[in-house]
Design brief:
Elements (H helix, E strand, L loop, with lengths): L9 H11 L2 H10 L4 E2 H5 L6 H13 L3 E6 L2 E6 L2 H11 L2 H12 L1
Antiparallel strand pairs: 1-3, 2-3
């Protein structure tokens, strides 16, 4: 798990952006934003094995985006949105640059 003190450290942002790079993982996060899901539930919409889905979940866990708990034989995943806020903060740092560019273009 990534600690809050790690905000905006390059290696942590790298893990977040790497995790977000795959469409299946982005979809998994979107579904986790509404409710916790088992790894099997996360795998269901895809033609992938539980092992493949588990690897995607491990990538999300490594980025700090997902917390997994074991309830009996079921692995339940929950979204931890904090790293998304860190990524948003990093992206937002370019807001002034793009605002200036668009203002120049408009003029």
């Amino acid at each position: 798990m990534i600690e809050r003190s790690a905000v905006l450290e390059p290696e942590h942002l790298d893990r977040v952006f790497r995790a977000l790079a795959h469409p299946a993982r982005r979809d998994m996060l979107a579904r986790l934003s509404t409710a916790p899901h088992s790894v099997g539930d996360l795998a269901a919409p895809y033609a992938m094995s539980l092992a493949a889905a588990s690897k995607h979940v491990q990538t999300l866990e490594g980025a700090g985006l997902v917390q997994r708990t074991v309830e009996g034989r079921t692995h339940v995943c929950r979204l931890d949105p904090a790293p998304l806020a860190w990524a948003h903060e990093w992206i937002r740092s370019y807001e002034q640059f793009w605002s200036d560019r668009l203002d120049s273009l408009e003029a």
